[in-house]
Amino acid sequence: MTALRTFTLTGIAAGVALAALSTTAQAQETWTMTTTWPDNLDLIQIDRHWAELVNTLAGDELTINFRAGGTLMPGTEVFDATQTGAIQAAGDWPGYWAGLSPAFSPLATTTSLFNGVDYLNWINQWGGFELYQEVYGDYNMVYLPYGITNNESGFRGGTPIESIADLEGKRLRLSGRDQGRVLEQLGGSQVTLAGGEIYQAIERGVVDGAEFSTPGVDYKAGFSEVADYWSVPGWHQSASVFGVMINQDAWDALSEETQEKLKIAAQATMAWSLAWSERESTEGTVKFIEDGTEINQLSEEDLAEIQRITNEVIVQGACEDPMHAKVYHSMISYLQHYANWRDISVPYNMSRVTDDLPSLEEIEACMNQ
Q1: Residue range 336-365, pLDDT digits in tens
Q2: Which phi and psi (to 5°) does residue 60 adopt?
Q3: Which parts of 59-172 fold into alpha helices (H)?
Q4: 3-state secondary structure 3-24
Q5: What is the predicted pLDDT for the residue at 27?
Q6: Which pTM value belongs to this model?
């Protein structure tokens, strides 16, 4: 009787152990992830950092097989591939999808508005994260913003741009709908080129100048070899956000604990990326100067005019699309709210100080139409 009872208990224990093993096996997920960035563009380091951190934190439940941009499909196809579930995840810059919805544009960058700390604050404490979910959610995706870079380099080319008057008639490579509208009002014309095409376009004179990313990224892309002049600051992208698109079904298949680990990895990568980018930008700037690049700084008067035009363009876009209006309304509300503390903490404050912002009242009027 004792032997039978022992056998029975042993059998039950074995069954429980087997069930636990089965549960573990079913919980283990393997994802394929790619990105919009090829190996030769340093922005891929942000995507890699997150994927490696996830594999460290959640390796027992999820393994991410990361592939560089262009190795599985062209970078332009990663949105559709993630939306349909052909792959589980892809790193991106939201502005690439502004043709689907203009709301993607401010989720990626702003013209003469947010800096990197503003995006950090807004995403984490002022409702920004929820707006990423709302916009990407319409396309069957969850979005984890995990990368922030501060303002971009500015325009590089074979002729100097010393003031906004020099933009007249210039053909400039520039990303973003709002950015293009501001440039057009300043007398220039927007040329759309993939990042990998910029070097040759400058070298051959196809464009008069071009922007791409931060000084560290730009230097590693070889731009000092073809561009003698550098116009600063990078008003066209006063900061940028990067992140990972995750197929909704793939996300839902994860446990809440694993989902939380992915979010923790995104938070850690976001903080790392801002510091990493600023270090890279500093070192890149030093190298451009050492190579003889001439830097031309726009005047305060020119920047004020850019801000005036930017404000008009933001209101114009808000009146054209409700979701675009909703995102900008949230951003400008943050700036006004944060100003209560930010402005009295100068010069030790952590955000952009400006008295000239797009009109919330005009945006609200568009939202209520």
Answers
A1: 999 999 999 999 999 887 788 999 999 998
A2: -75, -25
A3: 78-84, 104-108, 116-125, 128-137
A4: HHHHHHHHHHHHHHHHHHHHHH
A5: 53
A6: 0.89
